[in-house]
Amino acid sequence: xxxxxxxxxxxxxxxxxxxxxxxxxxxxxxxxxxxxxxxxxxxxxxxxxxxxxxxxxxxxxxxxxxxxxxxxxxxxxxxxxxxxxxxxxxxxxxxxxxxxxxxxxxxxxxxxxxxxxxxxxxxxxxxxxxxxxxxxxxxxxxxxxxxxxxxxxxxxxxxxxxxxxxxxxxxxxxxxxxxxxxxxxxxxxxxxxxxxxxxxxxxxxxxxxxxxxxxxxxxxxxxxxxxxxxxxxxx
Length: 235
Prior knowledge:
Layout: H1 2-8, H2 11-38, H3 46-78, H4 80-89, H5 93-106, H6 118-154, H7 157-183, H8 187-210, H9 213-234
Helix pairs in contact: 2-4, 3-4, 3-5, 3-9, 5-6, 8-9
């Protein structure tokens, strides 16, 4: 594992990660500049533009801090540069964790396990990167058509409900697969998964009941903390 982490935090990977992160920052600055120039055409004053930017920046703190909890544990598994690069592009810690786990397990080693080799690490990185290419290519090639697709889908409630059902089922299936593989390892792993399974609906219910959107964004990070705490006390 020590040799794998040396590879994961190598200079070459840092160069690629910082390059990707720089592109993301450049895009954000460019979008803000373009939106500021266009604001006058929709009747927005400079004060309103500044208020909108400030509101967006503050609103992003909640989801960003929620991801931090996941990234901290993610960094210990695949290193700092890859964590920076993947979370900086995709922004979904849950999906990246699933991709890394599936990639390493396909190479015959669980993510972060004692037999986690350089090959397993490389496989995990490839799965994460290839898994994110589809989103980027789709956005780049079909952004102009997204409005038409959304309009057609929204015309029938049946289509919208079907898309929601398929995406929800896919996510449940992925996490059930990963969770089931951990449960068969032993009693402690099963207890941790059951505790997380119980806590997540409670968090979502509180978020819906009190209309706390920020709590929904923090849900994965909070569940991970609960899982770590339960695992610590029963181990």
